[in-house]
Structures are given as structure tokens and as C-alpha cells.
Amino acid sequence: MKFSRILMALAAVAGFSLPMSRGALAVDDADFLRIGAGWWDFNRPDNYAAEFDLAYRSDYKWWFLKHQAGVLGTSDGSAYGYWGLYMDFYFGNRFVISPSTAVGLYYRGDWEKGDKKSNLGSPVEFRSGIDFSYRFDDRSRLGLGVYHISNTGLWDDRNPGEETLMLSYDIPISKLYSGWRSPGGNSPASQAAAKAATASATAATTASKPAKPR
């Protein structure tokens, strides 16, 4: 399909046009929870639907590849769960280009629009895409991505494919974890530790003061 070729070309250009240096690939970044919403099958207006994504993107690297796993659902009742790999190319501290690939299982929704169905030809589908993201100070990201899902014709002659345009927000897992803890250290253990530290500091200050002459 023409769109998938364009997508692959974009990923290739992004990869080879950037300096393949340690600085471009090996930035110490976080692992993320990704929340996304987009336009499923956006290049076929007579068959599009809303799409919602939830994914985990690991910071663990194998060479410069990272793991991802996620699930998406559409307003026409379709669903897709996947696992795959992605990589990050950094432009300074703010901008990131992230090509990715994945394989997963597709559940076909029952909803129809005219004679168009959400039948992609196979329960096993491959997903490829590329994201263009902006990094905030807390390392969270706001991105826009384009994705293609296809069975590549390996299992079935029917291979209509599907394209998605998606807006995503990546939240560092460490930020979520810190949000789950008691704000301000209000747990009993935190309060006890704070009181002990205050008492110790007061005692040290008192001991350091010279005695008043009589």
C-alpha cells in the first residue's frame, strides 16, 4: 500500500538523517505510561472511527531499542493488543522522533458503515508508526503520530490495512509513583522521622551555644 511505503520511508529518513551518536540515542530517559486518542482509518472518510490507546513504553534498552506493549480500542468495537520495539532519536533536550514496530492480535468489531467492515483479513496484524514529540521539563511528552496496521498478506489475501493519526501524552512512571505517595510526607512514619530530625537538630544547636557567664 502507498501509505505504508510512505510511513516506512519516513522512519528510514528519520533514522539515517540523525547523527547516530551516543548523544542522539542514549539519553537517560524514563519509562512511560502512554495515553492516546486519534482517528482510526483517517484516509478513508467513509470508514473512520475514534481510537483510544493505552501503552507501556519501557526505558530498558537492548542496544538502542526499547520495548513497548499496549492495547487500543475503537468506537466501532474493534480492539488490538500488541508488543513491539521502538527507538528514540533526540533533537537536543526537547524534541524526539520515535519510529516503532509491533505485532499483535486484532479483534474485529461488528459495527458496519455501509458495505465497509472493520475486517483487516487476519487476527494477527503488524503495526508500524512514527511519533514526533515534545519533551517537557518533567520528561513527559506530547506527541503526534501516524500508524499503519496490516497483516502484510501473509495469512490472507484480504489485506486492506488501516491508518491512524494519533495524539499522545507520555507520563513518566516515576511521576505516577510519586503521585501515589502521601503528599508532603503525611504518613505516620514520615511524621515520626521529621520529628526525630527536628529534635536532633534542636539538641545539636543547643549544645553548640556557649554557656552564659555567671
Task: Outline the fold blueprint.
Blueprint (H helix, E strand, L loop, with lengths): L1 H16 L4 H4 L6 E9 L8 E14 L2 E10 L4 E8 L2 E3 L3 E13 L16 E12 L5 E10 L11 E11 H8 L7 H21 L6
Antiparallel strand pairs: 1-2, 1-9, 2-3, 3-4, 4-6, 5-6, 6-7, 7-8, 8-9
How many runs of DSSP E, i.e. beta strands? 9
Coarse shape? elongated
State the helix count: 4
Order of helices and strands: HHEEEEEEEEEHH
Spatial strand arrangement across the major sheet: 1-2-3-4-6-7-8-9
Main beta sheet: 8 strands, antiparallel, barrel
Output the structural class.
alpha+beta
CATH fold-type name: Porin
Compute the separation of the termini in Å.
Answer: 96 Å
**What is the name of the CATH architecture?**
Beta Barrel
The radius of gyration is 25 Å
Q: What is the beta-strand fraction?
A: 35-45%
Structural summary, described in words:
With 214 residues, this protein is α+β, with helices and mostly antiparallel strands. It has a single domain (2-178), classed as Beta Barrel (Porin), CATH 2.40.160.20. 23% of the residues lie in helices and 42% in strands. It has 4 helices and 9 strands; from the N terminus they run H-H-E-E-E-E-E-E-E-E-E-H-H. It has helices at 2-17, 22-25, 173-180, 188-208; strands spanning 32-40, 49-62, 65-74, 79-86, 89-91, 95-107, 124-135, 141-150, 162-172. The protein has an 8-stranded antiparallel barrel with strand order 1-2-3-4-6-7-8-9. The protein is elongated. It starts with a helix and ends in a 6-residue tail after the last helix.
